[in-house]
């Protein structure tokens, strides 16, 4: 499996694009502004989008992807039932964007919705599977475990303290990487808590629950707080803390296993 980071910033500005991970050529995890980096033929090869949640920084490019994509089969958007209802009601409602579940005609739509549930794995071609993981955010949300027989990669999605996440991660014997959000700096902890995100201090509490050794990559850093978050994470890496191999994800990173 290959995962190419198209966007991993907590906002726009500077070189950052918002969350989008391309799994092989046919699956997107979230559809933030990073999707706009892809050429038309790459967009047309995407068959599935797995959404963590419906916040704009994770769906910004979804409407235009549906319209741009060429192909006979619909783009299948997977999400929690509550997330799909939000998309129907507030995005694909003919006012913000056309309802592509009925276009060009209801028998041959460009868009289909597929509800998912935490812990229910979705099998994909090539012995790949994607399993929704619990997340704790200000709207219904999930993370994802991407898996093939050779290993797995876990992505927290946007989340606050998430005790149900760790037993599932600690069971992974072939985890290649752990992508965790750390949106805010410690000086913004009240906002992190209000908006259900982590800051380095809360990240340290989360990582204390991790018993494995996979490298940890931080995502969703707010652009104006990147330096402060990075400095705090360096402090977390002091020898007495015992944490190692924690670094910020970059918008060009690729994983392969
Ligand atoms: N009280 C608040 N609750 C939630 N989000 C807020 C609040 N105040 C400001 N925000 C910002 O709104 C953003 C929505 O997307 P994020 O969850 O990435 O991050 C959130 C914060 O940057």
TrEMBL record:
One BP annotation, GO: cAMP catabolic process
Superkingdom of origin organism: Bacteria
GO function terms (MF aspect): 3',5'-cyclic-AMP phosphodiesterase activity
Pfam families cross-referenced by the UniProt entry: Lactamase_B_2
TM helices/strands, residue ranges: none
Domain Metallo-beta-lactamase residues, every copy: 17-188
InterPro entries (alphabetical): Metallo-B-lactamas, Pdiesterase2
PANTHER family per UniProt: TRNASE Z TRZ1
Protein name: 3',5'-cyclic-nucleotide phosphodiesterase
Organism whose genome encodes this protein: Azospira inquinata
